Structure formats: C-alpha cells, structure tokens
Amino acid sequence: MYSYSLTLKSLPEELHRDLKKRAKLHNRSLNREVISILQEATAPSKRIDAKALVEEARKFVAAQKFSIPHDQVDALKREGREEF
Prior knowledge:
By secondary structure, the chain is mainly α. The chain has helices spanning 13-25, 30-42, 50-63, 70-82.
C-alpha cells in the first residue's frame, strides 16, 4: 500500500479550529480526521431501496402493541403546527 502526503495551504483559522474540535470529538488525530472526512466524501453513494424501506416501516408499525386513533393523531398534528 502506498502512502502519500497532502499539504493544505492557506487553511482558514476557523476551519482548522473546527477540524481540531471534530478530531477530538472522534478521538482521532487531526490527520486521521481529515483522512476520514475525505474518505467519506469520496465514497460511492449508497442507493436506497425505497420499496424495501417502506416495507420495513410497514412491518415495524404492524408489530407495535399499541395504536393511536386517527382523530388523536390529527389533533396532535394541529397542536404541533399551532406552536409555530
């Protein structure tokens, strides 16, 4: 495996500070954190199977031991909207 170096010039102070905070949060060195961010940013995106996701949600809802009447759900929605 090859190991390459990358130098960043004129890195804004605020960005450097934010990267250091993020690295500390993830218990990584600044270098490992930047590598992790770059790997995530360049990884191929994963396609979501919408049909499978909907089916999984339906199964989850069906497995619940309780239900809320539709009129109560509607009332809760209205209540939440009125707060804004």
